[in-house]
Amino acid sequence: MPPAKTSYRIEWRPKAREDLRAIIRYIGQDDPAKARAFAQALHDKTLPLARHPNLGRPGRPGLPDAVRELIAHRNYIVFYRVRSEARIVEILRVKHRAQRTP
């Protein structure tokens, strides 16, 4: 039996963290508790990437080849890249679908 696949570490880059904070601020204008819960849910959607780093699809044209997209919510896309040699999934940006891609 082959050994179990070890997990990747998920690392949020500074711009992705700022994107998430901006989402919390925007939603929090109307409902701070809902904003925190939504941000946690969005963050939690990235957790399966630790076991399945290629879960998302390849990024759209115009993005670097290594960038992938994960639809974390019907309105939000998480852009990330997999650093296989380091076993890291880097969360690069979180964008509303209406925003320009990173």
From TrEMBL:
<dbReference type="InterPro" id="IPR007712">
    <property type="entry name" value="RelE/ParE_toxin"/>
</dbReference>
<protein>
    <submittedName>
        <fullName>Plasmid stabilization system protein ParE</fullName>
    </submittedName>
</protein>
<keyword id="KW-1277">Toxin-antitoxin system</keyword>
<dbReference type="Pfam" id="PF05016">
    <property type="entry name" value="ParE_toxin"/>
</dbReference>
<comment type="similarity">
    <text>Belongs to the RelE toxin family.</text>
</comment>
<dbReference type="InterPro" id="IPR035093">
    <property type="entry name" value="RelE/ParE_toxin_dom_sf"/>
</dbReference>
<dbReference type="InterPro" id="IPR051803">
    <property type="entry name" value="TA_system_RelE-like_toxin"/>
</dbReference>
